[in-house]
Amino acid sequence: MPELPEVTALAADLGGRLTGRVIDRLSVVAFAALKTFDPPADTLHGTTVSGVTRHGKFLDIAAGDLHIVIHLARAGWIRWRDAPPPPPTGRPGKGPLAARLVLDDGSGLDITEAGTKKSLAIYVVRDPAEVPGIARLGPDPLSPDFTEEAFAGILADQGRAQIKGVLRNQSLIAGIGNAYSDEILHVAKMSPYKPANMPPDDVERLYDALQSTLRDALARADGLAASELKSEKKSGLRVHGRTGEPCPVCGDTIRQVIFHDSTFQYCPTCQTGGKPLADRVLSRLLK
């Protein structure tokens, strides 16, 4: 799933391509992907794109008085197309193509989603705050207002909730997902199961890890085209998605915990005092 660094870079790349261009149409192929009906998508015809921004993990394409808001979910992506699009093939919504944004010269964006579980969402709204996911967003972790004191307050309010889940909760902190929460906790040398309400020294260490991890990823993604962002993200990850590989810090084997719909990775030596965390799925298989 694209997270804050990739969505920021994607917004910058698309902003450079789309700003000042005139929209011909938004063609929705997977009808379930479009979550709004008023205003209708055809009111985008003839509007001029004024910019592309980010809200958490949501992309916001401003055109005239409207906004096309896109949440790419776990398997969605956007591809730039220089030439007019070919006609869709197969049954609508059955392939990866979810929608096309077509400009007046035929170029534009293909919005796609891999896999069979379709979670990608597109909204056409007058105000981004009309999108429920945006209305619920917590503070952006890279904004000037997101100080260590503000972060400490968020953690204290969450009590004994596990820190891994707190970092991923978009209503508490916007833009961090499964991958970067793994990376942040590894840099902080902190267990994913540690309670959120922690001593001040731990808060400071976690805040510094959060800032450095996101800003380093943002610097690596800066200036890259959309087609390069996925591989850049994967190459920069130290523990997430690297089960069985050696930890780049201590050399211990990176382990994972599997849940029903996601997994996370960690280093036992760096993060849990050498103790492997219980993996409920693996435990059931061994019974």
UniProtKB/TrEMBL annotation:
<keyword id="KW-0863">Zinc-finger</keyword>
<keyword id="KW-0378">Hydrolase</keyword>
<dbReference type="InterPro" id="IPR000214">
    <property type="entry name" value="Znf_DNA_glyclase/AP_lyase"/>
</dbReference>
<keyword id="KW-0234">DNA repair</keyword>
<keyword id="KW-0862">Zinc</keyword>
<keyword id="KW-0326">Glycosidase</keyword>
<dbReference type="Pfam" id="PF06831">
    <property type="entry name" value="H2TH"/>
</dbReference>
<dbReference type="Pfam" id="PF01149">
    <property type="entry name" value="Fapy_DNA_glyco"/>
</dbReference>
<dbReference type="InterPro" id="IPR010663">
    <property type="entry name" value="Znf_FPG/IleRS"/>
</dbReference>
<feature type="domain" description="Formamidopyrimidine-DNA glycosylase catalytic">
    <location>
        <begin position="2"/>
        <end position="120"/>
    </location>
</feature>
<protein>
    <submittedName>
        <fullName>DNA-formamidopyrimidine glycosylase family protein</fullName>
    </submittedName>
</protein>
<keyword id="KW-0456">Lyase</keyword>
<keyword id="KW-0227">DNA damage</keyword>
<dbReference type="InterPro" id="IPR012319">
    <property type="entry name" value="FPG_cat"/>
</dbReference>
<keyword id="KW-0238">DNA-binding</keyword>
<dbReference type="InterPro" id="IPR035937">
    <property type="entry name" value="FPG_N"/>
</dbReference>
<dbReference type="Pfam" id="PF06827">
    <property type="entry name" value="zf-FPG_IleRS"/>
</dbReference>
<comment type="similarity">
    <text>Belongs to the FPG family.</text>
</comment>
<feature type="domain" description="FPG-type">
    <location>
        <begin position="238"/>
        <end position="272"/>
    </location>
</feature>
<keyword id="KW-0479">Metal-binding</keyword>
<dbReference type="InterPro" id="IPR015886">
    <property type="entry name" value="H2TH_FPG"/>
</dbReference>
<keyword id="KW-0511">Multifunctional enzyme</keyword>
<dbReference type="InterPro" id="IPR010979">
    <property type="entry name" value="Ribosomal_uS13-like_H2TH"/>
</dbReference>
